[in-house]
Design a protein that fits this description.
Hypothetical Protein Yqey, Chain: A, domain1, Arc Repressor Mutant, subunit A
Length: 150
């Protein structure tokens, strides 16, 4: 499970006295704890990798946006700190599908569901999210589904 990997990486960072990585890992743990509180689970569910991946993807998106703003604002030192955090976050994310692979998978799913027009977009997107959550960025998937249906 990803939570166990994050905990083990935190312990390793403590032992190695890697303060930058340790700070990023503690931030990840804190965000996951907040998500647990939000969901009122209190403890990790049996298979919560999808929740962890969702949290990590949101954190990565926030870091990318911050990097853009810091670069535009000529704050290289802050952008570098965000890049370091982004690297730690991305190390726990599953490998994302590339665009060609995603388009092939979406076209196969469209054919499997018998979707023919943009009216079937919701049905296809629900199936894409259920089948490819964590492996495919849903904002990119939206455009690919429109292209496959259009």
């Amino acid at each position: 499970m990803l939570r166990d990997a994050i905990k083990a990486a935190t312990t390793d960072a403590m032992k190695a006295r890697d303060t930058a990585r340790l700070g990023a890992l503690r931030l990840i743990s804190s965000t996951l704890k907040n998500k647990d509180i939000e969901l009122r689970t209190g403890a990790a569910p049996a298979d919560d990798d999808l929740i962890v991946v969702d949290v990590l993807q949101k954190m990565a998106k926030q870091r990318r946006e911050s990097i853009e703003m810091y670069v535009a604002g000529n704050r290289a030192e802050l952008a570098d700190a965000e890049r370091a955090e982004l690297g730690v976050i991305e190390s726990f994310l599953p490998v994302q599908m590339d665009e060609a692979e995603a388009m092939t998978a979406i076209q196969a799913l469209v054919a499997e569901l018998g979707a023919t027009s943009v009216k079937d977009m919701g049905k296809v997107m629900a199936a894409v999210k259920a089948r490819f959550a964590g492996k495919l960025d849903m904002s990119k998937a939206n455009g690919l589904v429109k292209a496959a249906l259009g």
